[in-house]
Amino acid sequence: MKILMVDVDGVLVHGRPDDGMPFATDLERDLGLRLDVWQREFFKPFWPDIVTGREPIEPRLTAVLREIAPHLEAERLLRYWFENDSRLDRKLIEDLARFRAAGVALYLATNQEHRRAAYLMEELGLRRYFDGIFYSAQFGHRKPAQDFFRLATEKAGAPPEDIVFLDDTLENVEAARMFGWQAVHWTAGMALKTAIAPFAAAAVTKEFR
Question: Per the confidence metrics, is the pTM higher than 0.85?
Answer without folding.
Answer: yes
